[in-house]
Amino acid sequence: MAKDRAELPLERYFSIIENIAISGSEMNTSAIAKICDYPVGTTHRLIQNLLETQLLEKSDSGGKNYQLGQRLLRLLHAGSNSVKIAIAVQPILDGLANELNDTCYLARLVGHKVVSVAMAHPIDDVRGHIVPGRTLAPNVAASAKAILAFQSEEIVGKALTGPLEKIASETKTDREEIKREYSIIRERKYATCWNEMENGLGAVAVPIPLPIVGTIYSIGAAGFIDHLKKTSEIKIVEVLNSKVPQLAKALTDIGVNNGSFNSF
């Protein structure tokens, strides 16, 4: 005989997640217990398990309020269709490419790999240096480094597992050296790639942090080094950062409106 769904162990966890999501804000233990019709003690135990798995986290406002966790929200973004993301950010990328007069692109973290999602080139230039859908090397690509520098040791360890090939004159293959570069990137808030992916090519990228989710996207500019360096590195970073608020809003909206979120 099939069990009533409410009696299934996982149903209680999903009920808590659903009700916090539906509320659109944070909730405390008593409010969760009341809306889910669970004993307070049971609710407290379930919440602790959800906290340990990062599906919930304590609210930034302090106290004993809880909100959806980073792991859950990242899962929703990972499930977002790449085509929808590209459509949402394309106008911003087009404007950015014309302003910098170089190829501009968006990358995102999927699991422990960074992949390119969308690309734009200047209106008078058909060259594209980053192909959408391509996996970007963690030791090479500026956009990959701009994301991985802000990840946990576990994700970084997985990203750097396996052979790291020297594919250009300045490619780094020593894992400790790469981690030291990540540390510098965290401090200065941008990453570069000069003669690391291919001799003569360069790139500059900045992270796009999202509320709660953290940094799983980056925006970059890439091109021939001689052309790219006609604009100072700091100026490129400034222009890229000027578009981060627009991109963050578009990407946050995609995460919220993602079909997999509708079940909440």
UniProtKB/TrEMBL annotation:
Gene3D superfamilies recorded: 3.30.450.40, Winged helix-like DNA-binding domain superfamily/Winged helix DNA-binding domain (1.10.10.10)
Domain IclR-ED: 71-260
PANTHER family membership: HELIX-TURN-HELIX TRANSCRIPTIONAL REGULATOR, ICLR FAMILY, HTH-TYPE TRANSCRIPTIONAL REPRESSOR ALLR
Pfam families per record: HTH_IclR, IclR_C
InterPro entries (alphabetical): GAF-like_dom_sf, HTH_MetabolicPath_Reg, Tscrpt_reg_IclR_C, Tscrpt_reg_IclR_N, WH-like_DNA-bd_sf, WH_DNA-bd_sf
Keywords recorded for this protein, A-Z: DNA-binding, Transcription, Transcription regulation
Name the UniProt record assigns to this protein: Helix-turn-helix domain-containing protein
BP term (GO), one: negative regulation of DNA-templated transcription
GO-annotated molecular function: DNA binding; DNA-binding transcription factor activity
